[in-house]
User: Fold this.
Amino acid sequence: MQGKPYSILLVEDEENLQEALKLNLELEGYLISSAYNGAEALKAVQQEHFDLIILILCSLKLTASAF
Amino acid sequence: MTAKPKKIKSIYVIYWVLLAYIIAALVWWFIALMQQNQIMVNIRKAELIKSDYNYDLKFKAIEEDRKRKVAQYVGEGSIFFLLIIAGAVFVFRAIRRQLKHSQQQQSFMMAITHELKTPIAVAKLNLETLLKHKLDENRQQRLLHNTLQEANRLNDLSNNLLFSSQIEAGGYMYHPEETDIAAITQKLVQEYMQRYPEREILASVEDNTIVNGDAILLQITINNLLENALKYSPKDKSICIMLAKKGPNALFSITDNGQGIPNNEKQNIFNRHYRLGNEATKKAKGTGLGLYLVKNIIFTHKGKIEVTDNPQGGSIFAFSIPLI
Assistant:
């Protein structure tokens, strides 16, 4: 990847799965921020711009519309 | 997602329509009998001859007969009505229980799928990462450690599934023998300290606490309680385990600093497939099997289990079983 790396927000409530996904995406050259739930994810998107958000809706502890 | 509530609604509509029809038929039957009775009385009265010296007696007899028939219809009708209501309540409860059971089964299948797939996904991803990339020693160790943690989680889950189905089917033979519950507790505490080195696990275990119990079942019990305490409390909070002899019993307790359990849910958490929290927001993890199994095992050991609030926040799970 050339230039500024794409930034991704990864929302996953399973700690080990989050760690494994994060490592793999980082090894591919992406800039990863992570959140465990919807509240953390909302806070992150309000503070920072992301090129992509990867999330499982049912792990948000929020409804989809709230997100 | 809309099919299920529609189906449930139609079951309730059919139930209420049938009940209303049966009650309406009963009322109609009562009215018809009363009318028929009145017609018969009128005919019998018309047949009486006023000049008959027994006229008054016969008239009175017809009236008494009418009253007796009315009392008979009211009595029979009331009994029919009460039987219908009792049957309706019984059927309503059975339908409600069945619907709840089927919803729980569905929710359980979703939960179990999630609980099975996640550790498999993590293990697969970690092993593929190790094969694909040349990682430094620390990262390799970290991935292997996480994979082992997930394998242990799968092992615990399969144990819970296996034993709960065996207990329900009456397939597991309970083997009580002299068992040192202190040794089981210490072994599991050590294991969990290795599994979760970042967590603070405090333990106070009284040696040589011997009970008449099944070592495998007691191990599953303590394992489930430990796993739950770690799963449902923040990582920066400690969990505290205590095992002591108290009178004729061995008393085990595990204290966490998690979110705690609301009073109205304290009894339900030991029910099969019950999971704390709102399904829609997926507050609850797990399968709803662990505490159900724990309760059954403790009861099999003639013991007691309860959950109380930790004054510092969180919960205290405590069980007691008789010492030898």
About this structure: The first strand of chain A starts at residue 7 and ends at 11. Chain A has one domain: 7-59. The interface with chain B takes residues 13-14, 16-17, 19-21, 23-24, 27, 58-63 of chain A (CB under 8 Å).
